[in-house]
Fold this sequence. Notes:
Blueprint: H1 3-60, H2 65-74, H3 84-106, H4 109-112, H5 115-150, H6 154-160
Amino acid sequence: MSATTLSILCIIVVVLICTFIYNSLIGKRNQAENAFATIDVMLKKRYDLIPSLVTVVKQYAAHEKELFAQIVETRSKKYADMSDSDKMELDKSFGQASEKLMVIAESYPELKASDNFMQLQRAINETEEQLSAARRAYNAAVTDYNNKVESFPSNLIAGLFKFSRKKVYTYNHE
């Protein structure tokens, strides 16, 4: 085998390895984006459920105006116009408001016995469980992507093509 053939063969192998690494980075990034899309769907579902719950609770707890005003303000932005970080902040705000709403509901036995309230509470609890699972899936996908972006030799390709770390989804509504 001549030196030229060997050089060409080495170049082909390097190009194939770089292509494989690049495609792998694209796949990991797309997995993370897909996982966030799942969170997005659950956030939208909760975004749409909360006003119904507020309406039911309002009938029983008219004096809780401050909480209702907070929820209305939190929901005042059009969901479709929000950035991903706005949606994460909305998630935290709605988490806090939902907890307060449930505490208020505990004070009203007739509300807790209401079929509408019970149905909405079940729907919200189901959505919260799905959101929690979606957050875990997103964070796993982001961690996998970040590992690929930072590990050698894929970090060389990642740097060359401007792949950057993604932030994991932290949910702390305390």
